[in-house]
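**User:**
Make up any protein.

**Assistant:**
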Amino acid sequence: MHPDPAPPAGFKPLRIGLTGGIASGKTTVALQFSALGVPVIDADQVAREVVAPGTGLLAQLFASFGAELRRPDGSLDRAALRQLVFADAGKRRQLEALLHPAIRRRTELLAAAAGGPYQIHVIPLLVETQAGSQYDRVLLVECPEAAQLARLQARDGCDAAQARAMLVSQASREARLAAADDVILNDAALSALGPKVAALHQNYLALAAAPRAPDPAAEHRAAEHPADR
């Protein structure tokens, strides 16, 4: 396999927002893109980094939501935080107001350093936060609801009612499909994903190489974070 050609100087990588419902297989798909050499930036991982032990943001979070969220090692009890904000829209908005600006700044730094013809940005709540316009394309990983429920119960140790409540709290399948430019249906064996990812990889390389109009979303990001350039 020949390496993908290096992009020209000053080139802006194509940004693909990868999203999907909980337990749909987003991480699995992202790993397959990563195996092809594509830079992957995961919003959940960035969210962990910005509240790592010792950060000022973590101290703010404890002050706002309670010291009981502090684990003995000083890290954040993410499961307890999720439970706290899950059923309280006010607390959820308060948390988002704290985290989202820091996550955006960190993401921009990582994206600038990652380069590549195109990048995969894993954004679980892309549809819920109406963030699709920030990406050149939106890739949706979709799977049957029964598979999501089974994976959730196996992964998180929750019961069927809790798993269904998590699904209901997210955007509907129809809303996700309406926001998507590309869809991977993850309804078969893991081996079936490889050809789907490989085909999209070639498509995204071609799109990245094609002439593009100025990106208003990129200009907005640059204006919003001038210190990050």
Remarks:
- Residues 22 and 166 are 8 Å apart (CA to CA).
- Residues 13-39+118-209 form a domain with the Rossmann fold fold (CATH 3.40.50.300).
